[in-house]
Amino acid sequence: MNMNVAALKLAPAAEADHADQILGTDAPSRLAFKDAMLQAVDMVAHGTAAASSLYSGTGVAGLRALLDDLDPLPKVGTGIAAALADIGRPALEHALTVGHPAAMAHLHCPVAVPALAAEVLISATNQSLDSWDQSPFATLVEERVLTLLTELAGLPASASGNFTSGGSQSNMTALYLAAERYGADARKSGVILTSEHSHFSIRKSAAVLGFADDAVISIASDEAGRMSMPALEAGLQRVVGEGRVPIAVVATAGTTDLGAIDPLVEIAEVAAARDLWMHVDAAYGGGLLFSRHRDRLQGLERAHSIALDFHKMLFQPISCGALLIRDRAHFAPLASKADYLNPEDAVFADAPNLVERSVQTTRRADALKVLMTMRAIGRDGLDALICQTLENTRAAAEAVEARDYLRLARRPSLSTVLFRYVSAGGPELSDAITLKTRAALFHAGIAALATTVLDGRVHFKLTLLNPRSTPDVVHRVLDAIGETARELEAHHART
Length: 495
Ligand SMILES: *Cc1c(COP(=O)(O)O)cnc(C)c1O
Fold this sequence. Notes:
The chain is of the alpha/beta class. It has 15 helices and eleven strands. The protein has helices at about 5-10, 25-45, 60-70, 80-95, 115-125, 135-155, 165-180, 185-190, 200-210, 230-240, 265-275, 330-335, 365-400, 425-445, 470-495; strands at about 160-165, 190-195, 215-220, 245-250, 275-280, 305-310, 320-325, 405-410, 415-420, 450-455, 455-465. Strands 1-7-6-5-4-2-3 form a seven-stranded mixed beta sheet, sandwiched between helices. The structure holds pyridoxal-5'-phosphate. Pyridoxal-5'-phosphate binds next to helix 7.
């Protein structure tokens, strides 16, 4: 007998070995898993009053004090029941309840139940998508979902993609591949053109990727927030006149504030004529692919790359996004830098190793939750949910227009509504009251609203990603805005 095995057998069991706390193939750890999960699920489903309120209202100091009073690493562990009581309960009680109908601040969605069930499988199996032998089925699930997504987007059979942590990573990866396509000088003299309303992750990505400080050129938008084609042409001519090299145009399908969809067909024409990489940031508006309104994304099928987020319009728990690439050959720069896999001595024939398409190495099996959601809810179900949010948004804009103390900024395009509070005290006072009203309604647990700057002035912004944010809810929120703003204004007048 091997000496080490004998020694192992003779070693006395540690006084309290915690082996059952590591999910294994044995019955005790499976029972421990089940017990812990059921307690946690029970807490989410019934355990706290917090589940029905938007927010506890506790400020930063109060939350910090809760944590300061707690020993994060006790010498002897408390066990799961006490840990859930001490940490799980406040984590739920002081969460922003994303499923509350008055949670309307950001592109931050309520989550689909089938996706939550999938999350249990994703985390318990802990598959990693970098290599096939770490995720045999999950790798193929991701490939299957990507095939469906490229079909929905209208990309050709050469297309491929990978799941990402979200739009920011998708955008950065796309710009990396675009730069690699143009070669060594791309980062020195290359220029990326994008609308003034495009997401900040475009600029951040260019900075991280080592482009020049002025590499991202901002193109003016029309009144609706869509990239202006004359401005794009003028921008291109100016850049070329300066001896610089345009390499990519980034269109946005669903800008973060106005939900504006750039003219994708026209942009594709320009990109083709000038041999530019066309990236479409559809992190927000890509959700339309799952609805009857997918024709609003016409031109998407001509993109070289597309960013999609499922944690925006598709009810997925964070994080869940994808990057689609028109021609899988364009992933080559990422594949060539994953050399530890030694493709020349591949062990598993035909097995895809998805690290070759990703900037991440270890990576979650997030495609499983998208697949589970699509299977369980179905095409008609997702269409109905998304259409309900668009319908709610249209009704919310009407509700804004019906109030004389509010002024609608633009007709909604997707699920955001931007509007001004009108103050007799003038625009500066209106800006200040808007910011204060937002904070007051948040701390009172009445509504989570956003504010943004449009046309140089502070606006309220509602983002209605929850099908339950129906007109009655919106009416209550708009009334609360009016009451709170008038109180603040009266207070201001007295002081
Ligand atoms: C949300 C958003 C992003 C960023 O995506 P993350 O998933 O938050 O990284 C990028 N672009 C647009 C248009 C977005 O709305």
